[in-house]
Amino acid sequence: KQEVTQIPAALSVPEGENLVLNCSFTDSAIYNLQWFRQDPGKGLTSLLLIQSSQREQTSGRLNASLDKSSGRSTLYIAASQPGDSATYLCAVRRAGGTSYGKLTFGQGTILTVHP
Amino acid sequence: DTAVSQTPKYLVTQMGNDKSIKCEQNLGHDTMYWYKQDSKKFLKIMFSYNNKELIINETVPNRFSPKSPDKAHLNLHINSLELGDSAVYFCASSQGYGSEQYFGPGTRLTVT
């Protein structure tokens, strides 16, 4: 059974800092991994999708890396801003089997960036 | 231009009632999902439909019945609501199983 863990559970940083959010998963047989952000009372916004064959993906100030063999992904946020404050969720998608396509989520990292 | 929409946004009801949540996507996707986010903010998949066919059915009580009238809609009907059903329910869609999933804004269900 796939388990996804995110560390830290919460993070508070001053504006401008570069930061790293960590995600680990127990079953390396994944199809891809997706990072989301969730604002309070809102739905999820997809940030980055990394295929299992890829090592990293970049979008603006965000960079996500994937080490499938060790079951780890990191989300790097450069020059953080107060608008980055949200909960960041990591989710892995199973490869094959009867539940192909199923996303398993971590519990998230609550990020607060203060001015 | 809402990609994935859900109605209602909030739903307050009493135990024992039957209620439905509707979901529509205008992205042309062929796969839709229902997720439940509990009070601890943990998101877990409930169902997945591909081209109106049920693909994933996690261990969800029979009181929950998804219905997909067409590829753009996936509704969730809940019978005999219980206190433990209180949660935020998210609908999502993707093109195929492995593609990026897009989420709706959620429906906060409160059972009293």
Distance between the termini of chain A: 41 Å
Proportion of residues in extended strands of chain B: over 45%
The helix-strand sequence of chain A is EEEEEEEEEEE
Order of helices and strands of chain B: EEEEEEEEEEE
* Oligomeric state of this protein: heterodimer
Tell the overall outline of chain B: globular
How would you sum up this structure in a few lines?
The complex is a heterodimer of chains A (115) and B (112). Chain A has strands at residues 4-7, 10-14, 19-25, 30-38, 44-51, 56-59, 62-67, 72-77, 86-94, 103-105, 109-114. Chain A is mostly beta strands.
List keywords for this structure.
heterodimer, A: 115 residues, mainly beta, 6-stranded mixed sheet, 5-stranded antiparallel sheet, 11 strands, globular, B: 112 residues, 7-stranded mixed sheet
Description:
- Chain A is an all-beta fold and 115 residues long.
- Chain A has no helices and eleven strands.
- Chain A has strands at residues 4-7, 10-14, 19-25, 30-38, 44-51, 56-59, 62-67, 72-77, 86-94, 103-105, 109-114.
- In chain A, the strands form two sheets. In chain A, strands 2, 4, 5, 9, 10 and 11 form a six-stranded mixed beta sheet that branches. In chain A, strands 1-3-8-7-6 form a five-stranded antiparallel beta sheet, with no helix packed on it.
- Chain B has strands spanning 4-7, 10-13, 19-25, 31-37, 43-50, 53-57, 64-70, 73-78, 87-94, 102-103, 107-111.
- In chain B, strand 7 (64-70) and strand 8 (73-78) form a beta hairpin.
- Chain B is built from no helices and eleven strands.
- In chain B, strands 2, 4, 5, 6, 9, 10 and 11 form a seven-stranded mixed beta sheet that branches. In chain B, strands 1-3-8-7 form a four-stranded antiparallel beta sheet, with no helix packed on it.
- Chain B has 112 residues and is mostly beta strands.
- The interface between A and B is medium-sized, with 23 and 26 residues.
Could you outline the blueprint of secondary structure elements for this entry?
The complex is a heterodimer of chains A (115) and B (112).
Chain A: E1 4-7, E2 10-14, E3 19-25, E4 30-38, E5 44-51, E6 56-59, E7 62-67, E8 72-77, E9 86-94, E10 103-105, E11 109-114
Parallel strand pairs in A: 2-11
Antiparallel strand pairs in A: 1-3, 3-8, 4-5, 4-9, 6-7, 7-8, 9-10, 9-11
Chain B: E1 4-7, E2 10-13, E3 19-25, E4 31-37, E5 43-50, E6 53-57, E7 64-70, E8 73-78, E9 87-94, E10 102-103, E11 107-111
Parallel strand pairs in B: 2-11
Antiparallel strand pairs in B: 1-3, 3-8, 4-5, 4-9, 5-6, 7-8, 9-10, 9-11
